[in-house]
Amino acid sequence: MQSAALPYATPPLRADQLAEVLDRHVRWVKGLPGGARANLALADLEGADLAHRDLRAARLIGARLSKCRLHATNLAGADLFGVDLYEADVSRANLSQSDLRAARLRAADISGANLEGADLSAGRPVDSAVNRRARGPEAPDSAAARVRLRAEVLQRTAVAAPRGEFGVCTDLSGANLRRAVLTGADLNASILQNADLSGAVLTNANLCDARLSGANLTGATLNGTLFRNADLVGTRLAECDLSVAELSGALFARPMDTLGLEIQRVIFDHERWIDSVGQRGQRAELDGADLSRSDLRGVNLSAASLRGVNLAGAALTGARLLMADLSGADLDGANLVGADLSGANLSFARLAGADLTAVRLGPAEIKDPSGRPTGRSWAANLMGADLTRAFLCGAYLVQANLTDANLDAAELHGADLAGAKVQRAQLTGSGRRRAPMLTSE
């Protein structure tokens, strides 16, 4: 199946057409004759080089700017509602007072950028006060047209984009925001899982209801930062002064030492069992255990029995769960980035909204009792699993059994599904960009 990318109103602009739009915009900014504000709404500019350009107050609603070069570009006050900046280079750009609601900035490089006063909250087809202030008054018909266009963009992207009770969420998962200036920025309900915010300035920023699982905020400035009801499970907060931030209702990880002595012993004995190839320790049996919001990053629970376990919202980045039995487990919203689940049994497991970026869910090599390869393998089983809105970017799903799985609105960009079984799998609306080929063998 081909990519289910957002439909665009026009084919990609030719270089000469784009050059003319940019030239007229600069003349408009400077108040020179022959100028016109750049209107690139829904334009397909994927991979374009727009570094160091002056695009202040430009209209880029719903534009595709994935993998674009926007280094040091001036986008102050720009209308970037619903824009796709996946893997774009936006480092040192000026995005102050810009409208980035419902934008996709997943894996983008935004290091050193100025996002002071930017609106990165969830998207609704209405103008925000901050952007009305930034761009000044406009004709009523122009404002109405932009609202209608926002509604169209949301309608087209709402299935694929992260969303919640606040609308279509701005997605900054895995983005590089090192030393970015986010003073006064509105990041309400935004997705910042595994984002790098080390050294960022978040003074008076609004991060209420934001998802920051696995994010790195080391050395960030948090004076007056609002984290009310934010997900901070597995968030790195070293060298941060949390006393100057608002943290009421925020969710933190449950450290290993709070899980109870019995669970700690079971995990410890299991890792000994793995390391000794079954000679010491004991295989873990944690069926039905409550490990929700646990910090289990890098844990080795390969071949463990975890049937029906509650791992909702858990931090499992880099975990090793090869051939583990997670049938019927609850992994809703879990952070599994880079985890190895080769050969795991996830049949009828719940993984709604889970981050499975770069996860290994291919076949596991079967070894004999002495640890030597047998030449046989065991495929991962996701039969009947609920993967709605899950992130599977770059996931390795070779030969995986996805029969009857629900992949509605799942993000499959760059996923490898060679030989995967997808009979009766629900794929409607899967991702802004699906994997290039799904087989039903």
Quick overview of this protein structure:
This protein is 13% helix and 4% strand. By secondary structure, it is low in regular secondary structure.
Describe the protein in words.
The chain contains four helices and six strands. It is largely without helices or strands and 441 residues long. The two termini are 14 Å apart. 59% of the residues are buried.
Q: How would you describe this structure in keywords?
A:
single chain, 441 residues, little secondary structure, two-stranded antiparallel sheet, 6 strands, 4% strand, disordered C terminus
Category from helices, strands and their pairing: little secondary structure
Q: Mean pLDDT across all residues, rounded?
A: 87
Percentage of residues in strands: under 5%
The shape is globular
The quaternary organization reads as single chain
Based on DSSP secondary structure assignment, what is the total number of beta strands? 6
Q: Low-confidence segments, ≥5 residues, pLDDT <50? A: 1-9, 127-141, 430-441
Provide the succession of SSEs: HHHEEEEHEE
